[in-house]
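Let's inspect one such protein example.
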Amino acid sequence: MNCPCGSNEEYSSCCEVPTEGSTPEDIKQLVRRSIVRGFKNAGDVRGELCLYASLIAKELLALHNIRSYVVAGSARWNYPIFYEWRPDGREFHAWLITQYGEYVDLTIDDIQNRRDFEETNVFRETGYSIDPPLWCWSKRLVDRKYDAVDLGATSLEIDENGYSILRTAVHNVYNNLPK
């Protein structure tokens, strides 16, 4: 199987076994700020668009020669809401895994801004009183669990026009931030 990072190498000899090191802190912050501000500038909710945020973050990391791939599947946090893998019912979560084995989830901290959040038990029972899980960029997961089902998230369709708008907004922010 080709590696979902896009290297054209076999997954087993590319990203399956993480390389030593980690993403430099300044690059983590640059990518995160670009995603957060870009989505805000575009008027979109990161908490609803985990796949798009992960795909764009992958592009930004590639600009720094850091390989990564998008993964879709189920996710649970120390939080009353979770996502099971149900692609037909449009229920899933997407995140990124870097060449260093880091899990990157830049959308979960925005879950309370989802348009469907008021329909959840969390809102009905607490009225927003529970803080959302924190965003994640880590090799060790202590308060969450990600179960990968679709390496590369290739089974999921994206709205090319919507993706293009978000991508442009994020890249505009990225290009204007100090490097």
About this structure: Strands lie at 68-77, 93-98, 103-105, 136-138, 144-151. The chain has one domain: 24-176.
